[in-house]
Amino acid sequence: MTRNAPTGPPGMSEEDILQAMRDMHGYVDVTPGDFREIYELAYAHARDRLARTTTAREIMTSPVHCLGLDMAASEAARFLAGRGVTGAPVLDGRGVVCGVVSEKDFLRRMGARGAPSLLGIVSRCLGTPGCLVTDLRGLTVAEFMTAPAVTATADITAEDISSLFMEKSINRLPICDADGRPLGIVTRTDLVRALQGQR
Amino acid sequence: MDYFRKMRGTTQSPPRVGAGEVAWSFAGAFVGIAAVGFLHAGLLDATGLGLLIGSFGATAVLVYGAIKSPLAQPRNVLFGHVLSALAGVAAQQALGEVVWLAAALAVASAIAIMHLTKTLHPPGGATALIAVIGGDSVHALGYLYALVPAGLGATVLLLVALIVNNIPKNRRYPEFWW
Questions:
Q1: What is the ipTM of this complex?
Q2: Which of A13, A175, A197, B113 sits 20 to 30 Å CA-CA off A6?
Q3: Is B3 buried (19+), middle (13-18) or exposed (0-12) by CB count in 10 A?
């Protein structure tokens, strides 16, 4: 009989535990059920500890690709697409992060209402003659970026980054030095990878 | 109805150990109890102090048959027996007239003391009980009972466990000392 763990780490079955106990030789003085409980609790503790002790410095992607304030929207789109990213910080003339451009900013400009999404645009496109992207022509990054940027210093913990993502509904957090110059960026992907214990 | 549902159990029993494990458990227990029994005979002749008490059969189960168990580690084996013996003698001396009460108090306080000192060792309960029900020869020992047979017997079983349990490649003992 195999029962799967209702919660916790990757679907460990009781049969897996029994097999592990056989592998260990000798009598292991714990029931499979107790072992699973210990494992799940320990896993949760490890995850919490990682979230509390892991900092942006360890998990950020660095260096980070940045956009300029006076870049044209078309150029910015090409820049992001070319690097396979969905957003980037924007630097002012002094090299300080002053905003962020992401897919959402493009979508918003293309007339997406409410929560901007690709499907929102698709549905609008299908009902509108012409091309929505036209609205973006002639715009510079400065005109449609999200500003001011939500940024943090390198010692912010994974836990705090996670709550910032939730609170501000953002997907990336530029990490800056004390002067606001970019050191790297933490994306949702970086965060998930860190909490899974991988680098 | 949670109360009754809890009686159904939630998991299954651990797997059966391999033949090698069975053989080494047998060998350890045989040598361990033989050693205690041998000393018992010698001591008994010379001094009248016996060494072979029932609770050592239970200790043998743990230190030769379940050697990874926290209950089977040296700290637990030695102090479990000694502290329980003290609890048993104290209960016997205080309430020896009322055997059922002295017995209950001996075992219950032995468990409590072992818990508090992180030395839980189930055979300690038997050691405490024997201090009460062991008859005149045990009662006559007084607190010496905690050293001989309890402490000395546990030490002998422990030494044999250290020697025998570390012979096979995939066995090791202890998991911890302290």
A1: 0.73
A2: A197
A3: exposed
Domain count within chain B: 1
With CB atoms and an 8 Å threshold, state whether A14 touches B65: no
Q: Does the pLDDT at position A114 exceed 70?
A: no
Q: What CATH number labels A57-100+141-196?
A: 3.10.580.10
Domain that holds residue B59: 19-165
Helices and strands in chain A, H and E counts = 9, 5
Chain B interface disruption, residue of A19, A27, A30, most B CBs within 10 A: A27
Q: Which of A1, A21, A36 sits opposite B14 (nearest CB)?
A: A21
Q: Which of A45-49, B55-59, B122-126, B139-143 has the lowest mean pLDDT?
A: A45-49
The pLDDT value given to residue B54: 95
Measured CA distances, B177 to A12, A183, B75 (Å): 32, 49, 6
Domain map (residue ranges) of chain A: 14-53, 57-100+141-196
Amino acid at residue number A15: E
Does residue B101 fall inside a structural domain?
yes
Q: What is the pTM of this model?
A: 0.71
Angle at alpha carbon of residue A191, lines to A189 and A193, rounded to 5°: 70
Identify which has the larger pLDDT, B178 or B81: B81
Question: Is A26–B68 a contact, with Cβ atoms under 8 angstroms apart?
Answer: yes
| Closest residue to A27, CB basis, from B12, B20, B21 | B21
Is the CB of A1 inside 8 Å of chain B's CB atoms? yes
